Amino acid sequence: NVAHGLAWSYYIGYLKIVLPRLKDSISVFNENNRFLLKCKKTWKLHILLPLNCEVYDSLWRADSRIQFINNLPELNVDRAGIKRRTYKNSIYGISDEDQKTHFCVVEYATPLQSLYAMSQDENAAFSRQARLEQAKLFCRTLEEILEKSKECSGCYQLIVYNDSEENDKHFLSKEILRHLKQQN
Amino acid sequence: NVAHGLAWSYYIGYLKIVLPRLKDSISVFNENNRFLLKCKKTWKLHILLPLNCEVYDSLWRADSRIQFINNLPELNVDRAGIKRRTYKNSIYGISDEDQKTHFCVVEYATPLQSLYAMSQDENAAFSRQARLEQAKLFCRTLEEILEKSKECSGCYQLIVYNDSEENDKHFLSKEILRHLKQQN
Ligand SMILES: Nc1nc(=O)c2ncn([C@@H]3O[C@@H]4COP(=O)(O)O[C@H]5[C@@H](O)[C@H](n6cnc7c(N)ncnc76)O[C@@H]5COP(=O)(O)O[C@@H]3[C@@H]4O)c2[nH]1
């Protein structure tokens, strides 16, 4: 089961490394940036999980109301022979209907991009049907893993959505803001 | 099949990005470092694939004859919402029995570290038996994917080995040097 392995790898090789240090990282950023991220309840990694696996490399291209602000201080770790492999997360400003900006740390779950690419490559033998099933399995498995993880408790917010039906070009910003409001 | 997805994700999310630029990267490094990597036939990414999934974060700890020299110029790419995500590879000096040093770009295949961690986590329900099968499947799948990849042709060398039986603490350096000699 492709998604099962991808969810575990995403947890073990990434979230388990970055999440425990995230709040400190945001705290340092805030001190140097006039306390941009005001509400501590939103000091989490907001992970975008589009079930259709359409992952944009730039969030602004997905929705023009999502603007890149800055990267958090980077984390450098020796890993599997790579000296000082770099991990970084990006802060975005998200505008609402009243043009007020809300700040948060947000990104797509990278493995969904792999699922998408697999369904495009003829050698992977992976249909669009299978891709949707695997995307759902990825989200479910990731949720279960994170719920059991003490190290990552309170450090993340999963944002699962299916925007294949959406004609609203500001669907994504509204979806993220909806989740941010729920945390306040 | 866990390994199938990890091999595809490793190719799509990493090798397809770094391998096509590797020779240029080594060329730039060489010009600034007195042409340390002399033999162009070894201008490849040497990927270590230990079937027992024992991946060290520092190669020197695996074998003291493997010394870190420097990192290649880094590659920064916007990916899945992360601005300027960093990719880097490390150059090592490997000493032979006559204490002569040979230079190359080498690292472990990180997904094997995920397989190892999965076999250690009780929630993953992944036995040591399954881990060995998946490690072999990972290597086979990766080999097949890379053989069909035009972009990556001539840019990599897979070094598959099983050193569970080895009592030679310089097994790894000898194994890498054996592969380097074959390319000359
Ligand atoms: N957003 C994000 N930022 C990161 O820095 C990062 N690093 C890993 N991941 C995701 O976590 C999971 C586990 O990573 P692992 O390192 O075991 O496998 C990685 C690793 O073997 C290799 N790879 C990717 N980036 C690098 C890198 N910079 N250096 C070495 N290897 C890398 O290719 C695999 C797939 O990478 P991604 O497809 O980007 O997604 C990974 C994966 O889903 C990241 N996700």
From TrEMBL, chains A, B:
Could you tell me where this protein is found in the cell? Cytoplasm, Perinuclear region; Cytoplasmic vesicle, Autophagosome membrane; Endoplasmic reticulum membrane; Endoplasmic reticulum-Golgi intermediate compartment membrane
| Organism, scientific name | Eublepharis macularius
Q: Per its record, how is this protein called by name?
A: Stimulator of interferon genes protein
State which gene encodes it: STING1
Report the domain of life of the source organism: Eukaryota
Q: Which residues of the full protein are shown?
A: 157 to 340 of 384
Q: Which family, according to UniProt?
A: Belongs to the STING family.
Give every STING ligand-binding domain span: 1-184
